[in-house]
Amino acid sequence: MKRQAFLAAFSFLFCTSMAAQAASINHGEQYSACMNLVRQAPEDAFDTALTWKGLGGGEAAEHCIATALIAMKRYKTGAERLEKLADISRRPKEFKAQILAQAAQGWFLNDDLNRARAVLSTAISLDENNAELYVDRGHIRSTQQHYKDALDDLNKALGLDDLNVDAYVFRGAVHRLTENFDAALLDINRALDLNPAHGEAYLERGMLHRIESKNDLARQDWMRAIEQDPHSKTAQTARLNLEKMDVKN
């Protein structure tokens, strides 16, 4: 589950809401610096956020602590802290839903899919018009092979946002797994129309071509998947598929 786009929104909301509290410490700037440090050196970000929290960093400092924990692969602890933060936060319910979505990502990375799904369901109850939440839950349900429920979520997401590329890719994958290959190809082609650089879409379309024994087309799509991000898990899967196809041939 790669759904992390909302982190940029956290930065804006925390920074703007804390600007009025700036005194000896500019908490808005501190939050931005802390979140940037999470991406570069999460251990240092964790230590910095703990100190900052003691100096009045509040919810923003706690969010940086939890995010750093997840970046340090302490998924369970990070997810638990995010759930607690959402529970005690005085911010709008839509904002709490975003915190819960990040907590669900932590549970997903911790291989606790049931907890991740449950947390996302709570998030959806707080913000039922957020397409991204349905995409996340649909992805988890698909991973658990609950394909009908996954399709319900992805259809809902696309009803709210018919330009959501990930929703098309995940729905295409579900159609492939349920052997509805024509619908799968329609979804994947739509995703690539919207984003011609989507590696996972090329990976999926390559699989569909391979099912139809269109090996040349499968090879082209898997090579494109690798080109988008050679170091990604998507690229790794594409390479494995190429190797299997070559060995079989």
TrEMBL record:
Pfam families: TPR_16, TPR_8
TPR repeats: 131-164, 165-198, 199-232
Protein name as it appears in the record: TPR repeat-containing protein
Highest classification ranks of the organism: Bacteria, Pseudomonadati, Pseudomonadota, Alphaproteobacteria, Rhodospirillales
UniProt keyword Repeat, yes or no: yes
Signal peptide region: 1-22
Native source species: Candidatus Terasakiella magnetica
Keywords: Repeat, Signal, TPR repeat
InterPro entries in UniProt: TPR-like_helical_dom_sf, TPR_rpt, Ycf3
